[in-house]
Amino acid sequence: MGNQKTKNNKNTKNEEVREKDTEKKVEQEKQRDERIEKSGQVTLDKNDRKHKIHLITIIGEVEGHDNLNGTSKTTKYEHILPELAAIEDSSEVDGVLILLNTMGGDVEAGLAIAEMIASLSKPTVSLVLGGSHSIGVPIAASTDYSYIVPTGTMVIHPVRMNGMVIGVPQTFDYFKQIQNRITGFVCGHCDISKARLEELMMETGVLTKDVGTILVGQEAVNEGIINDVGGIKEALAHLHEMIGDN
Questions:
Q1: How many domains does the chain have?
Q2: How many CB atoms are located within 10 Å of the residue 43 CB?
Q3: Which band of pLDDT confidence, cut at 50, 70 and 90, is reported for residue 216?
Q4: CB 126, CB 156: distance < 8 Å
Q5: pTM of the model
Q6: Domain membership flag for residue 15
Q7: Which one of the listed residues 157, 189, 238, 240 is annotated catalytic?
Q8: Residue 128 lies in domain
Q9: Angstrom distance (rounded) from CA 62 to CA 132
Q10: Does residue 37 fall inside a structural domain?
Q11: What CATH number is attached to the domain comprising 91?
């Protein structure tokens, strides 16, 4: 009788432990979903190598000092920069995967994100999906290794400015300074020369109403801006390999 009672107590305790584990998993999944919805970020830690990879998405328009309207999908640099600092300071995060599908946006904010990614000590890989246009180019090039899907695009064009522009030499000098910052960063983190990058920027025969160049998939690799053509499988595999080497 005593043995039966002990057995029943053990079964009850086991059921309670299983229920608590289930509740904990449900709560973790809920927090995971909320984090993805709010910031487009999540930690990938279910792999058999036990590596913790932090996923960051750069989507829509990179928002700068001014808030965009509520109907636009945006990436807020004030969310990304602290997260990158926390990643660098964390002993738990092993690597970073950046997914890009962006039309570009604010130059200062985009360069700030790119510089932060480039200065991380953790292994980093970027993957261009739909597109990584304009200021998205230096962000894609800022990682240790970069991929682009076969149908992914990159639009390279000169610096543009919205609103009123004063038509004086100083304004165009300022434009040139900004453009030099962008080209200098891109050329410093990939295999394209400054002369070739500026040639692509000023191309007039590709875009119908503007100057610039559209590079699709393998073309971005051929120009030396992106390292390889691939998808999420290749990007994650390469990041795991870099983490192992590190």
A1: 1
A2: 15
A3: very high
A4: no
A5: 0.77
A6: no
A7: 157
A8: 42-245
A9: 11
A10: no
A11: 3.90.226.10
135: nearest Cα among 160, 105, 112, 174? 105
**How far, in Å, are 6, 19, 25, 84, 199 from residue 11 at the CA level?**
9, 12, 21, 46, 73
Do β-strands 41-44 and 53-63 pair in parallel, antiparallel, or remain unpaired?
antiparallel
- Over residues 164-204, the pLDDT tens digits come to 556 666 666 766 777 788 888 988 999 998 889 888 888 77
Q: Look at residue 209 and tell me if it is in a domain.
A: yes
* pLDDT tens column, 74-116: 778 788 898 999 999 988 899 999 999 988 888 888 899 999 9
pLDDT for the residue 70? 67
Active site residue 157: yes
Start-to-end CA distance of the chain, whole Å, equals: 59
Give 217: exposed, middle or buried? Use CB within 10 Å, 0-12, 13-18, 19+.
middle
Contact 41, 28 (CB under 8 A): no
d(CA 30, CA 23): 10
Question: What is the model's pLDDT at position 19?
Answer: 66
Domain-located, residue 6: no
- Of the candidates 126, 132, 134, 146, the residue annotated as catalytic is 134
Can 91 be counted among the known catalytic residues? Answer: no
Contact predicate 152/172, CB 8 Å: no
The CA distance from 128 to 183, in Å, is 19
